[in-house]
Design goal:
heterodimer, A: mainly alpha, 4 domains, B: alpha+beta, 2 domains, seven-stranded antiparallel β-sheet, four-stranded antiparallel β-sheet, 35% strand
């Protein structure tokens, strides 16, 4: 139940109990108006999912049946969904409609339509260009969709295109050309920032905010890390790259008080630490420091997620080395049980402490 | 109707999208409609693109694309995508063509097109290495054998998902009678079909299915 609805119910009760008179009740109700035009997040998600299904369904029908159509008709059929989505967007803009229940599905459908139209025309005319060329073409045409519709789905999906472009353009071995491609891919990813800034500024509903933050945080921390790692074709050093990218996202989260990004940055950094028991000892030592720091930070801030992330990495780092040793399996089993109990106890203690503090 | 900033941005975005995709259609449609037909013998190999779906992948046979000409100024295994090749009909071949010349610009009124790339190679192929011959000796022998240019052309024919497996099978089975049909206009080349025994491959695959 939304807080406005709850408050309305409470005021009605106070009024019937005689705790407040009619004038006070009306004054209170006027102070907390309910936005009747506001549509629930469920409707937005349903609309977005519906748009996704429609888009994919249209592509599947075309792919299976359009062999019998002439080239001209195929071209028209390919472009028609783009024109339709664009027209709806123009009408909505001219009428000043701002509801995300409308813009979210339009954004997703428009995005898919542009991707599908480009691929279908390329298929019809046997355009023999490379995959990176096609991805770049699609990325350039879909960026305005991200900017204009403010769709969270399109905003999350778009940075994947520069990442695919970089991966398909690179050869996976260090070369000056690879560095250029990586830099261009990172700059391209930055092109999605205006849409991200607009998304944060319009103060979206909680669920939308969380989804948007998870998607964008992963794109910038994990996606950028992938691109740089591919560029340098390195294995061990990738850990450092992901830590640097995660630190950048964490820095942004703290500087601009961005929700969820702290958890995303920590998750990426923690996941990057998992391979370190099998790498140089320096990386292992750094991962240990990271795990302890995150666990302590979580305990001090009473943040169960952070505490657990730190503890999981710490346990893994210790256990991975421990299991490489020649210690008896009974002892190894006992140590595993001990770690499990420790993790459970610490969580219970933290939850209780959090409840006490809340009281 | 209000022409606010958001409307203008959306209108420009839509116009650019339709113009870009429309340009793609126009660019290739005019080649397919008005281009000169070039037919090259081809052979099959593997078949999927994550974005555009199933395709028949073929390569034009080397005897159609390898030409002897002066590539002395080229580096070893040099790839060039800024050169043109000239097609010429093979006498008595019923309309089949081969590459006849390579140049930086079209030199006469013949059928010239920009291939995907032209690569310098040695005349002696890798599979001609002697069984007991060392790589150093083979390499020296290759260098002495002389140089040739190898041209590569668009090699993917995108096809319907349902018909693709049959068409691919047909292409592999009738490799010797497969012909890649291209259209060339203003130096651009587009693959329009693959023919098996003179029939478009999709028609042949459908008939074969029945």
């Amino acid at each position: 139940m939304k807080k406005e609805e709850w408050l309305r119910g409470e005021i009605a009760k106070w009024r019937s109990d005689g705790a407040v008179d009619a004038a006070t009740a009306d004054a209170l109700l006027a102070r907390y108006p309910v936005d009747e035009s506001r549509i629930g997040w469920g409707a937005i998600v349903a609309g977005a999912f519906g748009a996704l299904l429609i888009g994919l369904g249209i592509i599947a029908i075309f792919a299976a049946n359009w062999d019998f159509l002439g080239r001209g008709i195929r071209a028209v059929v390919s472009v028609a969904p783009v024109a339709a989505c664009g027209t709806v967007a123009l009408v909505a803009k001219s009428k000043g409609w701002k509801s995300m229940a409308l813009w979210e599905p339009i954004g997703i459908l428009w995005f898919i339509s542009v991707v599908a139209a480009s691929c279908l025309v390329a298929q019809t005319y046997q355009v023999g260009g490379s995959v990176p060329g096609l991805v770049l073409f699609v990325a350039a045409l879909t960026l305005p969709v991200v900017w204009t519709t403010h769709s969270v789905g399109a905003m999350i999906a778009w940075p994947v295109l520069p990442i695919i472009w970089a991966f398909s353009s690179m050869e996976g071995r260090w070369h000056a050309k690879e560095a250029t491609i990586a830099s261009e891919a990172l700059l391209m990813m930055a092109a999605s920032l205006p849409a991200y800034v607009a998304f944060i500024r319009r103060n979206p509903p909680r669920a939308s905010l969380v989804i948007g933050q998870i998607g964008s945080g992963l794109a910038y921390a994990f996606g950028a890390g992938l691109v740089v790692c591919r560029c340098f074709a390195m294995s061990d050093g990738c850990v450092l790259v992901f830590w640097i990218c995660a630190a950048a996202v964490l820095g942004a989260a703290k500087l601009w008080k961005l929700p969820v990004w702290t958890e995303i940055a920590v998750s990426v950094a923690i996941c990057a630490g998992f391979p370190t028991p099998f790498l140089d000892f320096g990386f292992y030592a750094l991962a240990l420091v990271l795990a302890i720091a995150v666990a302590v930070w979580g305990i001090m801030r009473m943040r169960i997620f952070l505490t657990n992330m730190g503890l999981v990495l710490l346990s893994w780092l210790i256990l991975a080395k421990f299991f490489e040793s020649s210690v008896n399996f009974t002892i190894k089993g006992l140590v595993l049980i001990a770690f499990g109990i420790l993790l459970a106890v610490l969580n219970v203690v933290l939850v209780r402490a959090k409840k006490r503090r809340a009281k | 109707m209000k022409f606010n900033k958001g409307f203008v941005v959306a209108a420009v975005a839509l116009a650019v999208q339709i113009a870009a995709i429309g340009f793609l259609v126009w660019r290739y449609e005019r080649i397919v409609l008005n281009g000169t037909e070039v037919r090259l013998q081809c052979q099959a190999y593997d078949p999927y693109d994550p974005l555009r779906g199933r395709y028949l992948n073929m390569t034009v046979r080397k005897d159609c694309t390898n030409i002897l000409f002066d590539v002395s100024e080229w580096n070893e295994y040099d790839h060039r995508n800024d050169v043109f090749v000239k097609f010429a009909e093979i006498p008595g071949s019923n309309g089949l063509c081969r590459v006849e010349a390579v140049a930086k610009e079209p030199m006469d009124s013949g059928v010239w097109a920009k291939p995907k790339w032209v690569r310098m190679e040695y005349l002696l192929e890798y599979n001609e290495k002697g069984k007991d011959e060392s790589y150093d000796d083979f390499y020296a022998r290759r260098k002495k054998s002389g140089r040739k240019a190898v041209a590569s052309f668009p090699d993917q024919l995108f096809v319907n998902e349902k018909i693709a497996p049959g068409a691919e099978k047909l292409l592999r089975e009738r490799m010797t009678s497969a012909v890649a049909v291209y259209r060339v206009l203003d130096g651009e080349i587009v693959l329009t079909d693959i023919e098996i025994d003179g029939k478009p491959i999709l028609t042949a695959a459908r008939e074969n299915k029945k």
